Amino acid sequence: MVKTSLSLNIKRTGENTIGDIMDDMKLRPAPSLEDAVLSPLGEVSVNRRQFMRYGFNAASGVLAATLGALGFASILLPPSGGGSGDSSVLYWAKGREDEAWYGAKHLQPMLKSDFVNEAANSSIGMSGAQGVWNGLPVIVNYVPHAENSGKPIADNSPRFQEMAGYDIGKNYVGHATEFLLGNPDIFDPNNNLIMSFARCTHLCCIPGWQLVSNSYTDDNWTPGGGDDGGSKMFCICHSSRFDPTAIEVNRNANRSTGASFEYLGIRRAGGPAPVGLPMIPIIMNGDTIEASSDYTGWLTYCD
């Protein structure tokens, strides 16, 4: 097995070191073959035991930005995908996440009933968890859309909102409603679940769901997809915020090749991130949350 020369001098999540590390690395593309060999079976070692000890928000942001998505996937999970099938979505609870409600469920399959039970502890009926799918970081959110969509729009009555999307240049890209009419299998709002690719569109760090406490993560909700109210995904690196209830069409580009692509995702609410996060279509297998790999082109902007 070939080992990379990457050193994991990473402090605990929450200390002001992540941004400095990312700046020092300048988010370069994956190392050359002189530094690492990324085989199709993921035979890469970067002191995996040490990596698994650190918080997902800290370690994975650095590794994924350096190795690219494929290299990151090969380190995070074995070739079997954790033993639960390539479509399975697993809880991630190492580091700061082990204090969350899903802390005892690390690398167990995500169940919708878990999110429903946790949502009962929220004053607005929402819940969320960090996860991993095919070695990639994701966030799954439960939003009581089916229960609230027939009610008048009001504060603290969360539901999915289909909105118009504008790219980094403020150019209109499309509307979520029109997109879903042509692609109805991508997202079912009445399932009350949404999964987002957890790589910030700013500098490819890892946003979190209620892993820090501030006004953006408070247990409340306001409509409109703006930056007021709580229940936002929050990136601790540079404070970008994303609204998991605001669905839009947007456009991004691969930072290595410049290839542009459009995607359905959640809206950027504030901070330095230029656009929102791509959605990953959920597939329900009974109570188990799985995901479709048909839209992986949406996930390549950090490669």
Description:
It is built from 6 helices and 16 strands. The chain has helices at about 20-25, 50-55, 55-75, 110-120, 145-150, 175-180; strands at about 1-5, 45, 90, 125-135, 135-140, 160, 165, 170-175, 195, 210, 235, 240-255, 260-270, 275-280, 280-285, 290. The strands form 5 sheets. Strands 6, 10, 11, 12, 13 and 14 form a 6-stranded mixed beta sheet that branches. Strand 7 and strand 8 form a beta hairpin. Helix 1 (about 20-25) crosses helix 3 (about 55-75). The longest helix is centred in the first third of the chain and has 21 residues, at about 55-75. It is globular. The model is unreliable at about 1-85 (pLDDT under 50).
Say how many strands there are. Answer: 16
What is the CATH fold-level name of the largest domain?
Rieske Iron-sulfur Protein
CATH-defined superfamily of the largest domain? Rieske [2Fe-2S] iron-sulphur domain
- Calculate the mean pLDDT score and round it: 79
Strand content: 15-25%
- Per DSSP, the total helix count is 6
Give the proportion of residues in helices. Answer: 10-25%
What is the name of the CATH class of the largest domain? Mainly Beta
What kind of sheet is the major sheet? 6 strands, mixed
Q: Which structural class do you get from the secondary structure elements? A: alpha+beta
Low-pLDDT residue intervals, each spanning 5 or more residues: 1-85
Spell the H/E element sequence. EHEHHEHEEHEEEHEEEEEEEE
**Between the first and last Cα atoms, what is the distance in angstroms?**
23 Å
